[in-house]
Amino acid sequence: MSQTRPLLRPAMVIERAVLLSADGSVPRAVAVAVGAWKRQGYVCVALHCGVRKGGDGVEGMRAEVMHQRRIDAALRGFGGVLDATLLCPRPGEVVDEDVPRPSRFARLIIEAAAAHRIDLLRSLMVARNHDAIEGAAIAGLRNVLVVAEGEAAAPSAPGQARPDFVVHAFGDVLPLIAPRRTSATW
Question: Against a cut of 0.90, is the pTM above it?
Answer without folding.
Answer: no
